[in-house]
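User: what does the whole thing look like in 3D?
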Amino acid sequence: MKTETNLKFRPVDEEQKIKLKTTRFGEIEVPRENVIHMPGGVLGFPGYKDYILVPHKENSPFLWYQSLDDPALAFVVINALIVKPDYDVPISSALVEGLSAGRIEELELLAIVTIPKDRPQDMTANLLGPIVINPAKRLAKQIVLDPERYSTKTLILPQKK
Amino acid sequence: MLVLTRRKGESIIIGDDIRVYVVDVKGKQVRLGIEAPPHAPVHREEVYRIIQLENQYAAREAPLDLNQASSVWKEEKEGGKDEN
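Assistant: Here's the predicted 3D structure for the full assembly of 245 residues, as structure tokens:
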């Protein structure tokens, strides 16, 4: 009887995980429900619409935003509120609805981080074009804010003189 | 490229569900009103391009691992070095 039960459950588990080839983490398995869908893609990467978030490690503020379509395509992202605690983003009710959320509070803001090669001190966050994400529904969209207020290159760390 | 002449108050329709109005014309500036469904986001082109370029740059510069970046981060934020 026990064996039967196991057999029943195992195929279901396997079905829910997808195998994913990545340049940085090799082949990884992620639960299908962790896949984040971006109908509009990341601007400049229109064909790449599915991503997963891979936390870098404990005590690191960074996460990888890894494309499911291209093993080599991964962005470094950070919770935008870590970079700018008073980050005030106008979010329309159409966007809340478009991301299948009931309320604005359900949404989170990620900023794409640019880390110049050999100059990690100069890392910047893109606060002009944050990724708005509904973690519960795994839907996300990169939005465009007002260039008078926000920059694509907000320094994250204090600059050494 | 299709070129049309429109006056203030007139509009054009693109496809079935995108409408662009000429709200006002003053000197060298034209104010446009745009109605578009959510699947057709509207952006000022120069802002859209800046974000596109930054995304492409971010993807190109993304390191193979983040240990150096997170250790610089830790030094600054917590005054402690990352062990890895």
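In plain terms: The mean pLDDT of chain B is 90. Residues 45-61 of chain B form the longest helix (17 residues).
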